[in-house]
Amino acid sequence: MCFTLDREAGLKEAKDVVKPFDWTFSTSYKGTLLPEAGGFEVVQTGERIDYEKLKQPEKIYFYDEVILFEDELADNGTAVLSVKIRVMASGFFILLRYFLRVDGVLVRLNDTRFYHQAGSDHVLREYSSKESKVSELRVSPALLTDPNRLNEVLTATELVVHKLVLPRNSCDDD
Q: Is the pLDDT of residue 119 over 80?
């Protein structure tokens, strides 16, 4: 009898501890700014990344893409978190992208972009979240696997742009 009572009490306690689980692994990560790394000043801004400038042909000194995680959601779609970096003489561009497709239900893109133009005193950080129900999208089913093209048709739900002002170098004052 004691075992049954203890077991029931344990089950009730376990149910109280369990938190909701996001089986889509969604993330709205915008990057971590470490104070010991120099202390950026974070300022909300209306300034935007100049994508036309990024489209101009230029020698790329370094490029890489790393898939941080990928899951097929138990055959119900896909969730991918990846980061791409591109370094040119004119600056650098980083894209952290979370792409979610739940088959027949919804598509979501959470992008964090960083852009630094050489010679400027700041890095622009743009975070955007876009999402649409699959039933509301009027696109070819083949398009549902291409986050770059979906980026153009999904409904924007959030946009936050920060200017990360670089600390002045004490040598700059000389």
A: yes
Report how far residue 81's alpha carbon sits from residue 145's, in angstroms, rounded to the nearest whole number: 14
- The end-to-end CA distance of the chain, in Å, is 82
Alpha helices of 18-76 — where are they, by DSSP H? 51-55
Summarised one tens digit per residue, pLDDT across range 84-94 is: 999 999 999 99
Q: CA 152 to CA 148: how far, in whole Å?
A: 7
SS3 state of residue 20: coil
Cα-trace Rg, the chain: 22
- Cα 93 off chain centre by: 14
Is 170's pLDDT higher than 70? no
Tokens of 29: 């990560």
15, containing H or E segment:
helix 2-17
Q: What is the DSSP string of 72-134?
A: -GGGTEEEEEEEEEEEETTEEEEEEEEEEEETTTEEEEEEEEEEEETT-SEEEEEEEEEEEEG
Return the number of other C-beta atoms located less than 10 Å from residue 142's C-beta: 8
Return mean pLDDT, the chain: 85
Which letter does DSSP use for residue 46 in this model? S
